[in-house]
């Protein structure tokens, strides 16, 4: 008999966590249903090993967004062709082959053949499927519209992945430029500059301060490069450890939102993600309290996630959605007004999608402007660094010539 840690939603929309004993996750989920709880996940509790620092070097068991979108699209098409669920999953297993996605789908198929529903089969796997995704699938099964829900969710995932890929593609060139700039400056300091040292030494003159500083930086990079790499590695590990601490992560997220330009960009991105996810959940039949509780886990910034949790608690008290969101001070007036209109007209899902469209487009335009400015800024900084090095060398050469005269 294994012990499972679980998270579930109560009828009021509160998240309930605890532990249960059972032979497998499917049995634990069934017991949660008997207690009128809405299961989010049930994970087998294992003995903790290692140092206790919480570093997770192994890859996540979850499906990448791209693979999850493809799985949803393919499954929706197979169900539309009136194939039974187990047969459709069997076909997807053969298509995925011996990949991580194939293993996840294979385990899902095994649980479905054992009599579990699709949502229960997904929820029984550790972190393989996002909680919000499982909730939408469960709502589709209950409402008898699984194929339609899969199609809608696939469109949502494709849109999300497209935005992410656009941002990543736009950052490739500036990242390469930064690397090239750093390598160029390092090359000048460690290879080119030392060629002038014999000339300065033979002259025996006192070098200008700027030249001595540049020469010292070059010597430091050449002799102690391993110290710099070690320091960067320690900083990376320390940053990873700090991210594992909720209090530190909350301070970091609060600091990011306080930054002049980046904070506004991150805030709009998270609001767009929240609105898109909540709209899809509501459109797929997930109850509003449960949908709000799930959205808090989808948002990446912990400060905004805490704001959403506060709004969700007030929503359950009967205040509606727009009023608690406006009271938090984190949601722009436009988003609050559109959500209020959606509540008053009974078109909340539609208005949430409209909010998501507005802020996704704003974020995309802002990123394009920032990236357009970033490339020239990096070029100018690289040129300035090289220019300072050249000026330092030329100043020393001029000083030597003056002494010779």
Low-pLDDT stretches are 46-60
Question: Helix- and strand-based class?
Answer: mainly alpha
- Give the DSSP E fraction (strand runs of 2 or more residues): 5-15%
Global morphology:
elongated
Could you give the order of the helices and strands?
A: EEHEHHHHHHHHHHHHHHHH
Question: Could you tell me how far the N terminus lies from the C terminus, measured between alpha carbons in angstroms?
Answer: 93 Å
Largest sheet: 3 strands, antiparallel
Number of helices in the DSSP assignment: 17
Q: How much is the radius of gyration in Å? A: 28 Å
Query: Strand order across the biggest sheet?
Result: 2-1-3
Fraction of helical residues: over 70%
Mean pLDDT: 79
How many separate domains? 3
Task: Tell me the layout of helices and strands.
Blueprint: E1 2-9, E2 15-22, H1 25-34, E3 38-44, H2 65-80, H3 85-96, H4 100-113, H5 118-123, H6 131-143, H7 146-192, H8 197-203, H9 209-223, H10 225-244, H11 246-258, H12 262-283, H13 288-298, H14 302-319, H15 322-328, H16 333-345, H17 348-404
Antiparallel strand pairs: 1-2, 1-3
């Amino acid at each position: 008999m294994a012990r499972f840690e679980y998270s579930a939603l109560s009828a009021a929309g509160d998240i309930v966590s605890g532990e249960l004993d059972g032979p497998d996750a499917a049995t634990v989920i069934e017991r949660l249903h008997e207690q009128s709880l809405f299961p989010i996940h049930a994970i087998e509790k294992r003995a903790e090993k290692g140092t206790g620092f919480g570093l997770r070097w192994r890859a996540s068991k979850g499906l990448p967004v791209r693979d999850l979108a493809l799985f949803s699209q393919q499954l929706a098409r197979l169900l539309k062709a009136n194939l039974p669920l187990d047969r459709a999953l069997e076909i997807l297993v053969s298509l995925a082959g011996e990949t991580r996605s194939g293993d996840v789908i294979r385990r899902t198929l095994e649980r479905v053949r054992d009599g579990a529903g699709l949502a229960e089969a997904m929820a029984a796997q550790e972190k393989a499927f996002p909680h919000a995704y499982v909730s939408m699938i469960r709502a589709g099964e209950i409402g008898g519209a699984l194929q339609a829900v899969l199609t809608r969710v696939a469109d949502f995932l494709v849109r999300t992945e497209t935005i992410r890929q656009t941002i990543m593609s736009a950052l490739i060139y500036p990242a390469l430029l930064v690397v090239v700039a750093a390598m160029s400056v390092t090359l000048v300091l460690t290879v080119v500059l030392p060629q002038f040292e014999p000339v300065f030494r033979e002259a025996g003159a006192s070098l200008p301060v700027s030249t001595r500083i540049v020469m010292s930086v070059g010597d430091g990079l050449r002799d102690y490069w391993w110290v710099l790499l070690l320091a960067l590695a320690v900083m990376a590990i320390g940053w990873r450890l700090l991210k594992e601490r909720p209090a530190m992560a909350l301070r970091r997220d609060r600091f990011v939102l306080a930054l002049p330009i980046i904070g506004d960009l991150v805030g709009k991105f998270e609001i767009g993600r929240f609105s898109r996810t909540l709209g899809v959940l509501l459109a797929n039949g997930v109850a509003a309290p449960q949908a709000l509780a799930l959205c808090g886990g989808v948002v990446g910034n912990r400060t905004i996630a805490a704001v959403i949790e506060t709004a969700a608690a007030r929503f359950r008290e009967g205040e509606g959605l727009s009023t608690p969101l406006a009271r938090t001070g984190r949601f722009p007036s436009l988003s609050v007004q559109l959500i209020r209109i959606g509540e008053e007209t009974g078109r909340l899902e539609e208005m949430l999608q409209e909010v998501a469209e507005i802020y996704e487009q704003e974020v995309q335009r802002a990123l394009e402007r920032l990236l357009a400015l970033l490339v020239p800024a990096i070029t100018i900084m690289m040129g300035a660094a090289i220019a300072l090095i050249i000026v330092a060398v030329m100043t020393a050469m001029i000083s030597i010539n003056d002494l010779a005269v």
